Each structure stands twice: as C-alpha cells, then as structure tokens.
Amino acid sequence: MSENRPPKNWRRIGLTALMIAVAATASVFIVRSIADDQPFDSQLWRDQASMDNESEVRSRMINDLQSNVLMRGMKRSEVLLLLGNQDPGYSSVDYDLAYMIGYQSGTGAVTQHGAVTRSGGGIRLLTLKFSDRDRLIEWRVLMR
After folding, report:
1. Strand residues in the chain grouped as ranges (E)
2. d(CA 53, CA 125)
3. DSSP assigned state of 127
4. Is the per-residue pLDDT at 30 higher than 70?
5. Dist CA 28 CA 56 (whole Å)
6. How many whole angstroms from its chain centre is CA 56?
C-alpha cells in the first residue's frame, strides 16, 4: 500500500503556513486603513486647537510632523509659528509646550500565561522641550 501523498504533518504545516500568510496580509491592509496618516498641515493643526478635539486631524498628522517637520535646533518662534500657542491646560515642569493630539482608548493584551491585561486610555500629547537658548532639543508623544 504505497501512497503518493505527503505525510499528514506536512499538510498541517502547509495549512498553518498558508493561514499565517493570509492573516499577515490582512493585518497589513487593516493597519494601513486605520493609520490614514496625512502630511502635516500647519493651518489644520492650529485650527484643531479651537475644535472639540474629537477630530483625528492631529493624530493623522503626528507621524509626518515628528519625522519630517520638527528638527532639533529649531527656534521656539519657528515651532510656535508651525503649531500655534500651547493648548491650554497641559502645562508642566517636565516640558515647555504641550499640544493635545487626541484620545486613545484602552488596550488589552494576552500574557504568555493566557491572562488578559488592560491598560486604560487617555489623552495623547505632543510635548516639546527647549534649551536655555530657546532651541528645540526634544519632543515626544505622551499619554496622560
């Protein structure tokens, strides 16, 4: 009784590999559609400060702003020209300027032991630090 079929475990491996490939491809399309990044637009950014902050305008622009617009050594006046005045209510001794990007909902993760952990959501802020000579030295996105 000779069979010309591969052993069962090879079929299982092939099927598993196919499922992983399909899941990875679907994930890429989902992430791209959710991200919806857009180029930084100074006027839109500044207009967002007067809105209700429910819009995702700043969230979609933040990657381009950090990667292509903000540069170490920029003068404070240049940054203020781009971003406008700091959003009210977000001052701190840890940074010089803060801008609300938007809200982030809570997330969940599964540990290696199968337990589900949750972290609460919060407000995403773009924070900026300047040197004593009013030059941009650092920026980062923080959760508050």
Report:
1. 97-104, 107-110, 116-119, 122-130, 136-143
2. 12
3. E
4. no
5. 21
6. 12
**Cα 103 from Cα 89, distance rounded (Å):** 15
Q: Could you tell me the two tokens for 7?
A: 């052993």
Please write the tens of the pLDDT for every residue from 40-76. 999 999 987 766 555 688 999 999 999 999 999 999 9
Token pair in block for residue 1: 């009784």
Neighbouring C-alpha atoms within 13 Å toward the C-beta of 41: 11
Nearest to 107, CA basis, from 140, 54, 143, 57: 143
Short-list 105, 99, 122, 89, CA closest to 48: 99
State residue 40 phi and psi, 5-degree precision. -65, 135
Neighbours of 74 (CB within 10 A): 19
How is residue 54 written in tokens?
């429910």
Q: Which helix (H) or strand (E) holds 97?
A: strand 97-104
Region 121-127 average pLDDT: 87
Burial of 4 (0-12, 13-18, 19+ CB in 10 A): exposed
Instruction: Record the tokens describing residue 36, joined without a space.
Output: 């919806």
Q: Which 8-state DSSP code applies to residue 86?
A: P
